């Protein structure tokens, strides 16, 4: 199978590495690539890490503002999830997430595979929005 060779990119220096994971065959779609829903679940988890440090309690994902699958994800890729808070509102926090893959047998070279923006809301015991402490 041929593949367009893409140059390796530098990893972000202004974002936090919040998750690393390697997808397995059980995470594949019918094409043999990794199922987009699996990637979205990992991005949702990765995006929650920085807000969790401010919210310090229950929160919920209220919106996926943008989600771009730039390149397929493959079995055996080492995925690195970088995140950055872009907005803190009264009850919500919006995060940018970028995902980079090190392909099998090309570890050390990074390709951006996904980028997304998600918003999380701090919620109280009744599931209602609550203010985020300054
Ligand atoms: C999250 C939830 C509690 C928010 O309740 P709500 O009554 O819609 O909240 P509000 O309209 O008061 O908005 C709360 C915050 O979310 C933000 N928000 C609401 N809808 C949004 C949207 N579509 N996009 C971005 N931000 C949004 C608001 O701007 C506000 O932020 P701020 O206080 O920082 O200004 C409620 O929508 C909910 O329970 N949703 C389901 C969450 C869930 O189950 N997530 C998992 C998906 S399976």
Notes on the protein architecture:
The chain has one helix at 36-55, and strands at residues 16-21, 59-69, 78-88, 92-102, 111-122. With 134 residues, it is mainly beta. The protein has a single domain (16-122), classed as Thiol Ester Dehydrase, Chain A (Roll), CATH 3.10.129.10. A five-stranded antiparallel β-sheet has the order 1-3-4-5-2, covered by helices on one side. A hairpin with an 8-residue loop joins strand 4 and strand 5. The longest helix is centred in the middle third of the chain and has 20 residues, at 36-55. The protein is elongated. Coenzyme A is lined by residues 60-63, 89-92, 119, 121, 123, 127, 129.
Task: Lay out the secondary structure.
Elements: E1 16-21, H1 36-55, E2 59-69, E3 78-88, E4 92-102, E5 111-122
Antiparallel strand pairs: 1-3, 2-5, 3-4, 4-5
Bound molecules: coenzyme A.
Coenzyme A is lined by residues 60-63, 89-92, 119, 121, 123, 127, 129.
Pick out its properties.
134 residues, Thiol Ester Dehydrase, Chain A, 15% helix, elongated, Acyl-CoA thioesterase, HOTDOG_ACOT
Gyration radius over CA:
16 Å
- At the third CATH level, what is the topology name? Thiol Ester Dehydrase, Chain A
* Corresponding CATH architecture: Roll
What order do the SSEs take from the amino end to the carboxyl end, as H and E? EHEEEE
Q: Based on DSSP secondary structure assignment, what is the total number of beta strands?
A: 5
Beta-strand portion reads 35-45%
Structural class: mainly beta
Helix content: 10-25%
Low-pLDDT segments: none
How many H/I helices? 1
Report the biggest beta sheet as strand number plus sense, adding barrel if it closes.
Answer: 5 strands, antiparallel
CATH class: Alpha Beta
Q: Write out the CATH superfamily name.
A: Hotdog Thioesterase
How many domains would you count in the coordinates? 1
Give the overall form: elongated
Heteromolecules bound? coenzyme A
Q: Separation of termini?
A: 53 Å
Mean pLDDT: 94
Strand order of the largest sheet: 1-3-4-5-2
GO molecular function, one term: long-chain fatty acyl-CoA hydrolase activity
Protein name: Acyl-CoA thioesterase
InterPro entries: Cytosol_ACT, HOTDOG_ACOT, HotDog_dom_sf, Thioestr_dom
GO cellular component, one term: cytosol
């Amino acid at each position: 199978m041929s593949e367009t060779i893409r140059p390796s990119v530098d990893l972000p220096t202004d974002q936090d590495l919040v998750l690393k994971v390697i997808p397995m065959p059980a995470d594949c779609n019918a094409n043999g690539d990794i199922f987009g829903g699996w990637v979205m679940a990992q991005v949702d988890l990765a995006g929650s890490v920085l807000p969790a440090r401010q919210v310090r309690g229950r929160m919920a994902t209220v919106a996926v503002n943008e989600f771009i699958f730039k390149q397929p994800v493959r079995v055996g890729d080492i995925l690195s999830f970088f995140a950055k808070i872009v907005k803190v509102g009264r009850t919500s926090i919006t995060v940018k997430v970028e995902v980079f893959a090190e392909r099998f047998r090309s570890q050390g070279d990074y390709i951006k595979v996904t980028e997304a923006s998600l918003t999380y809301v701090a919620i109280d015991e009744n599931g209602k929005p609550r203010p985020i402490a300054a």
